[in-house]
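Title: Prediction job returns without error message
Component: structure pipeline
Severity: low
Priority: P3
Assignee: unassigned

Description:
Job completed but the reporter wants confirmation the result is attached to the right record. Sequence as submitted:
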Amino acid sequence: MIASLGMYDFAEVRAETDALWHRTRDHLRAAGVDAPDALTRDADLWTLWQSPDLLLGHTCGFPYRTALHSTLTLVGTPDFGLKGAPPGYYYSLLVARADATGTWQDFVTRRLAINGVDSQSGWAAPQTFAAAQGLRFGRLIVTGAHVETARAVAEGRAEIGAIDAVTWRLIKRFRPEIASALKVLCHTEPTPGLPFVTARPEHAAPVAAALENAIAGAAGTPPGLRGLVQIPKDAYLSVPTPASATKAELAG
């Protein structure tokens, strides 16, 4: 069996993430479910998500709705208590350099830094947000991670960036030298947060129960994690998916 909680796994909060898993593991074992001793890290995410041995994984809404919803079962969605979003929902923040002027619309023809074209918060959310006003970000820089998106904007390699709001909290706390160089222009519409999933549908309910007990059970929970929310599958599948990025857009 495999367990992975890699979506918000900053080095500075790994002790809390490990503690959450250890409590979850112990609840699962008490319920008769075989659970691995430790979380799997430093493995390819797509390999993990497609493994039939995935007992607990953490994925993004974009790959879930576009590729994984038929093979993975929802366990629940972590609630980070974001202001302006329902429980379990999140949004992207559009950030620019602190000394930049103008509204987010003024940046739509400039370089947008994104963590990847398979990301809800980094790619789909800002494009859908812009499309609601008949706009599209047409110059993209792919950074590979939200922290690197923030860094790219802070260093002037991009003029605007799209960052997961939960990750932005972590950046402000643990990368203040980057956060202080930026300002938030706006946030996109809330969508269902990054779901916990399993490749073993028969284990979805006991894993959810174990997670709920682990979150409520003790100190040592990852920062801001308040609980587990059950968001219907249809809510994920109904989130709009923008047109794929073109080679011209990806050229920046």
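Comment from assignee: result matches the submitted record. DSSP finds ten helices and twelve strands in the chain.
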